[in-house]
Design brief:
The protein has 89 residues and is α+β, with helices and mostly antiparallel strands. It has helices at 2-25, 75-87, and strands at 45-47, 54-56, 61-65, 68-72.
Length: 89
């Protein structure tokens, strides 16, 4: 009985590997493996100064200090930046 269960398991595994092999030959790709490249003229990404994430420039909050523009993903990051700037001599 146990031998039969093991044999059925091995059979299913072999079928699974054969199906995967033919999928790879067919050129099917999963979206997680290959991401579409950004097209020229797409949104410019800017870096949040506090949490180091990148966000589209037109969606970012902006703060201008000393002639330089800083970008933030949220009001919380912007406020944290303002507080750290106040502490600097």
């Amino acid at each position: 009985m146990l031998g039969r269960i093991i044999l059925i398991g091995i059979l299913f595994y072999i079928i699974y590997r054969i199906v995967r092999f033919f999928q790879k030959l067919g050129g099917e790709t999963s979206p997680q493996k290959y991401q579409k490249r950004a097209e020229p003229g797409s949104k410019t990404m800017v870096k949040d100064e506090m949490c180091n994430t990148y966000i589209p420039e037109d969606e970012a909050l902006k703060e201008i200090k000393g002639g330089r523009t800083y970008y933030f993903c949220s009001e919380a990051c912007r406020q944290k930046f303002i507080q750290t700037e106040k502490k600097k001599p």
